[in-house]
Design brief:
This protein has about 40 residues and is mostly helical. It has one domain (about 1-39). It has one helix at about 1-39. Keywords: Membrane, Transmembrane, Transmembrane helix.
Length: about 40
Amino acid sequence: MEIMILVSIIIMLIIYYKVFRIFDEVKKIRKFLEENKHK
């Protein structure tokens, strides 16, 4: 029972980490596009 809770917490952390990384990449890309637009 406790193992299942641990596993679910780890899976949630991995998903949050992946989502955070994707969000960070999107911010970088948008910043890059904004800089190119101004040129």
